[in-house]
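Re-run with default settings, no changes from the original entry. Doing this only to confirm the output is reproducible before filing.
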Amino acid sequence: MIEISRCTCGHISLPPEIICPECRKKMVREKVDGEGNVLSTTVLYSTAAGFQSPVYLAIVSLDIGCAVICRAEAELHEGARVRVELSGNFYSIRMNAP
């Protein structure tokens, strides 16, 4: 499960925000399952200090209607069904989502 914020105007924020950037109303936090499909992927071979190469990244379109950039443990294919989780300071991908 991951936490998002949703506004009455329809805007969804991930990571969650207190005030809606669209209409400036207070947003409501909720937990969602984080399932979605991989839209795009890339592999970083030249990484910042503290990160081992390679770093696998993916943009995931979540079923709730927003997208998020995530780390993965292996290379992914576009269209793969995954589940996104918050791991420390990063969103990460758990493979084989139902």
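The CA atoms of residues 43 and 56 lie 5 Å apart. Residues 1-32 form one domain.
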